[in-house]
Amino acid sequence: MKEDGSVTVSALAITALAALVMVVMLRTERTALERSVLYSSAARADAILDGAELSAVTVLRRDLETAPDLDHRGEAWTAIEEQDAPIAGGRFWLSIEDAQGRYNINRLVRGSLNDQQVFTRLSIWAGLEPEISEAVFVFMEALGPVDDVEALQAAGLSRRDIDQLRPFVTTLPEIVPVNLNAAPEAVLSALFADHIVGRTLAARRAAGEAISPDLLRQLRLARPPAASFNSSWFEIRTRITMGRMDRARVTLIHRDDHRGQAVARIVERRPAPGDQGA
Hints:
The structure is a single chain. By secondary structure, the protein is α/β, with parallel strands linked by helices. Helix content is 45%, strand content 21%. The chain has seven helices and nine strands. The strands form three sheets. Strands 1-2-7-8-9 form a five-stranded antiparallel β-sheet, with helices on one face. It has a two-stranded parallel sheet with strand order 3-4. Helix 2 (113-125) packs across helix 3, helix 2 (113-125) packs across helix 5 (185-192) and helix 5 (185-192) crosses helix 6 (195-206). The longest helix is centred in the N-terminal third of the chain and has 65 residues, at 2-66. The termini are far apart. The relative contact order is 0.15.
């Protein structure tokens, strides 16, 4: 009888062990399946983001072909933007920003007096102390160009300084002017060295009027040396969510006229804040 009891206990132990192994196997299979589904969703999401980038490149190239003199928010290239749009299994976002709407601090590498004056006015109107501008000039002439505003920490700017400056500056790899049709009021004021002019132009633009050579003549204003009415650089922001997956991307696009033909191409692609890579 005692031997039968031992056999029964052993059988129960074996059964329990087998059940445990089965649970582990099922969990492993489920984890592998979930991972496979996640990778599949990520691949689909990347394909959608790639397609969105291609659409942006195409519409910006066409805009350069048909309306090269002015770039503003009233043009057709803004029509492809999407905000929280439903797609199969998720949501989608796409926005296009004129990257020349902010002041390119890499202009300071040349040591131009006009550029220094514009940056000084802009930094003061952004709430920075006047001496910060001089530190930035020294840094940029010695170590510029830079590829991110964060680099200005090495010039002595604090996190607060950079956060206050960021909405008004950029770090494009090419020395290009600011597009008056995309610049915030503070940047317009810095370029024209006049708060009232900046406010007036921003108001005219908000009313749906593009800033053009004709408008400046009407207002008896001269175009500042670091300003233009069109752009070559654009930033595309895309995002897609599917279940627990959240993919976000920032893409820098450059376009120009190459031997009489409009060309637009992707220069840089990077994950946006919040991106959850597979």
